Amino acid sequence: LAEKLEVQSSELVKELMLKGIMANVNENIDFDTAVSLAEKYDILLEQQEEVDILEDFFKVEPSDEKDLRSRPPVVVVMGHVDHGKTSLLDAIRKTRVTEKEAGGITQHIGAYVAQVNDQKITFLDTPGHEAFTAMRMRGAQATDIAILVVAADDGVMPQTVEAINHAKAAGVEIIVAINKMDKPGANPDRVKQELVEYELICEDWGGETISVPVSAINGEGIDQLLEMIVLVSEMSELKADPKRDARGIIIEAQLDKGRGPVATVLVQSGTLRVGDPIVAGTSYGKVRAMMDDKGRRVKEAGPSKPVEILGLNEVPLAGDPFYKAKNDREARHVAEKVIEKGKVDLIKRSSTKVTLDDLFSQIQSGNVKDLNIVVKADVQGSVEAVKQSLQKLSNEEVVIKIIHGGVGAVTESDVLLASASNAIIIGFNVRPESSAKSVAERENIDIRLYRIIYNAIEDIEAAMKGMLDPIF
Ligand code: GDP
């Protein structure tokens, strides 16, 4: 300030003292104090908008094609409860991770890397579509491939359908693992037949969905499953630039009594090194140490590699993006700005959520081309009836997509999906669970409840034309 005002800094310090502010030359003073100081010298101060600091920092320039290198796929396991997600993750870890390590002790850091011949696959260790979609809702798209686990003796169940729709809404590849093949009641053909209804048509049924019969208990089919993952990832040509500044997401984090905040991060591009200053959500710090999934200390981690890091000043949230900063000062400054703006979901696309009330204006302004809808009803017949009637309302301006339909109350998982996919929720003769209601309020998700299908159709039709009666 002294430089700008062209006076000695000691003079300003003296002026401040007269105002009762004991400041040294490195002190930050607030804007109002600066204004009153400047007035003394007949200078008018104006506050500059500081929006650009964050935008600049989080702007990611695409890498040059020639700098891209192939990277391992990141895989998540989904499916109905008790169909064997955890057992499958354990079975893969046992055969592909520990065995190779002399006296290998695997660390549970939230993700692990499996070695398949000369290829690597990164598995996220938190199974289930809720965790997956909760991260996506925060703007993080971590996963390339979803393994859909379906028990061969139980078939497609409600959470199987949820998992399918959550994976589809995220646009990730689905590979079906038909599990529990060792069981006497195993009927893989029934599973394949049931999957047809959800547009997953297995290869031996003339479709393109890869399915592998497995048993997490006796290890049958695990090798084939891993080979299929490698195949699918090769076809997807997954690439990242290992040379640039590291960027990625927080997989999980907690406070450790001895070590302070500990976070497992997944590097998505660039290379993270010990000593790098980083910002993760509202936390920041210098990477003090890094450990891989085998508990070994490592100095650097490239794309698709999960590592546990020490050195953040506080515990970030799962799904927070992290970025390397130029220096400690920038890291701290950016984190402070993020806190100030309450703008935690940094790489999130526009946070405006579609609602029926503003649907028309969003269509007009070109913001909405697909109207995504989640339908919940008391009986399957209503779900189907609504789906069909709503889809017919599509016109050249907006396509109506039912991204998920199911029987039962509106759940938190439905709201997470709606939030991650910018959808509205329609319920027939069902109510939202209380947890769903509070998340919907926080995330601004439009939930509409009806008793008569015709009323819903009418509302959506009106909303598309900008003629919906407002609710007061
Ligand atoms: P999750 O809820 O999907 O994570 O399911 P779990 O992995 O916890 O498995 C649920 C139950 O099914 C456990 O008792 C497992 O031992 C059992 N289970 C999992 N996979 C298999 C399998 O391939 N064969 C048999 N027979 N049982 C299995």
TrEMBL record:
GO MF annotation: an example: GTPase activity
Chain residues that bind GTP: 79-86, 125-129, 179-182
First-listed, main subcellular location of the protein, grouped into a coarse class: cytoplasm
Compartment(s) of residence: Cytoplasm
Organism domain of life: Bacteria
UniProt entry keywords in alphabetical sequence: Cytoplasm, GTP-binding, Initiation factor, Nucleotide-binding, Protein biosynthesis
Function: One of the essential components for the initiation of protein synthesis. Protects formylmethionyl-tRNA from spontaneous hydrolysis and promotes its binding to the 30S ribosomal subunits. Also involved in the hydrolysis of GTP during the formation of the 70S ribosomal complex.
Name of this chain's protein: Translation initiation factor IF-2
Gene this protein is translated from: infB
